[in-house]
Amino acid sequence: MYLDLRAELDQGTRVFAVEVGYKDCKAPGHYLVRRFGDKLICPGCKFMCALQAMHKPQEGEAIIVTKRFSTIKTMRTR
């Protein structure tokens, strides 16, 4: 599965969600981008969803992965 960029918070943390058409994220939360082979992935669960290269993720970058229908406004209050 692939993660799609949904928003960027004021402090620069990017918020991702699973692409439309796939099942929703089973382990939303805060993660650090990891490298697996030639792909950068979210290490949050056994699926190891890939981050789209077009978003230029960096290894070790802090990200938030959210369920598809969560609101970004809720994320900012944490």
Task: Describe what this molecule looks like in 3D.
Mean pLDDT is about 85; it is low at about 75-78. This protein is about 5% helix and about 35% strand. The protein has a 5-stranded mixed sheet, with no helix packed on it. A two-stranded antiparallel ribbon has the order 4-5. By secondary structure, it is mainly beta.
Spatial separation of the terminal alpha carbons: 27 Å
User: What share of the residues lie within helices?
Assistant: under 10%
Walk across the major sheet and give the strand order: 3-7-2-1-6
Radius of gyration: 11 Å
Low-confidence stretches: 74-78
Oligomer: single chain
Instruction: Report the order of strands and helices.
Output: EEEEEEEH
Could you tell me the strand content as a percent range?
35-45%
Give the helix tally. Answer: 1
The overall strand count is: 7
The main sheet comes to: 5 strands, mixed
Shape call = globular
Find the structural class using helix and strand composition: mainly beta
| Average pLDDT figure | 87
Short account of what is shown:
The chain is mostly beta strands and 78 residues long.
Which features would summarize this protein structure in a list?
78 residues; two-stranded antiparallel ribbon; globular; mainly beta; 36% strand
Strands, helices and their partners?
Layout: E1 2-8, E2 14-18, E3 29-32, E4 34-36, E5 39-41, E6 50-51, E7 62-65, H1 72-76
Parallel strand pairs: 1-6, 2-7
Antiparallel strand pairs: 1-2, 3-7, 4-5
